[in-house]
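Appendix B, Record 12. Input sequence as logged:
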Amino acid sequence: MKLSARNVFPGTVSGITKGAVNSEVSLTLKGGAPVTAVVTNESVDRLGLAAGKDAYAIIKASSVIIGTDLHDAKVSARNIMCGTVVKVIEGPVSTEVDVEIGGGNTISAVITHESARNLGVTKGGHACALFKASSVILGVS
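Logged structural output:
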């Protein structure tokens, strides 16, 4: 499977909460970081998702928000992963920011150049990556 999405994380389904239309699926990534996804019940059934099953969390870099000083912030995004900035590629319009979140996992975000400048993100600095549960695509092999 080849994907254009920058962020593809292997993990294990740790829980599923079914609603009328959608399910909340909890994954534990290799290394222990939790990821929450909201997908349709049909997708859960079609993928054969169940607790203990291996799956992939896929998140487009453009869906990832970067923040600093967020440890006391209250936000609606279900997924907040903090760590060390390991790469910054600046462009005139967009900047790529890669954050090492532990367990050998690095999450990539593409944000505006102006936002990166305003946040002061630099290699070696601390940052948090945020993304909504509805921005997570699940896959199985």
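The chain has two domains: 7-59+134-139, 61-132.
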